[in-house]
Amino acid sequence: MKKSIRVENLSKNYGGFKALSNINFSVDKGTIHGLLGENGAGKTTAMRCLLGLSYSDSGNMFIEEIEVSKNNFKLRKNVSYLAGDFRPYENIKPIEYFKYILKLENNSSEKYYELAERFKLNLNKKIKELSKGNKQKVGIVQAFMRESNLLILDEPTSGLDPNYQRVFRELINEEKELGNTILLSSHDLLEISNCCDFITVIKEGKVISSQSKRDLIEKTIKKVSINFLSKPSESEINKIKCINNFEVEENEIKFYISGDINEFIKFISNFSIKEIETESSNLSETLLEYF
Known about the structure:
Layout: E1 3-14, E2 17-28, E3 32-36, H1 43-50, E4 58-63, E5 66-67, E6 79-82, H2 94-104, H3 111-118, H4 132-144, E7 150-154, H5 162-177, E8 181-186, H6 189-195, E9 198-203, E10 206-212, H7 213-218, E11 222-228, H8 234-237, E12 243-249, E13 252-257, H9 262-268, E14 273-280, H10 283-288
Parallel strand pairs: 3-8, 3-9, 6-7, 7-8
Antiparallel strand pairs: 1-2, 1-4, 4-5, 9-10, 11-13, 11-14, 12-13
């Protein structure tokens, strides 16, 4: 699959602080890719380096196979960005702000009307008079109104109530259906697990996992509680690779398994079983294990 973004061995220092340490990840074209990490993990730094708003110390970055460099500003033409600390001009109305931004780009789009309606954003009230959530809506509208092929969104749902978080998820899925690519960051496990096709986990400036949601789901832990009439020994259990852990209490054994469970099914079929219960963790719990 074609890549919209490639990041190779990217490092960035701020004085003695190492914000990013040789990180690698790529974003497939036409997908929603999440950068997940705690505040200060390095998500914003990675995005700013991609956009040329901050310069890397080492490594290479590519957008649509074109290398990101200090002088390559043309790359931003088809990229929309929402900053994590989005701060628009506050002494004007949203409609004036949107028209000003579009005029600078010689863009005749009026998509902001439709977007404002979806988010119930008052276009004619000064931005300084808006609540935090409504100011965030201004940021979302300005990112999506340009009809870009690539959207880079830093903590896009910050300050939004659940109803408008749902509207946002609908919006990014519509962009995906159009073939556009979305890279978004969040420290919210539920948000990332709900809307992303691929997830890159960043911790303390390092990528500790980068894989598809499907692969992550396969790794979710399943708990199987079995009450045996004749139970296996611990040495027999330890031979089964898909069993991550187990707890024994008299004739009941709780198994914690991940991956392909066929081996597990074949194993327990050798024993007499009185009762069996199963329970799966959700993707958020799996992601939490990385922290």
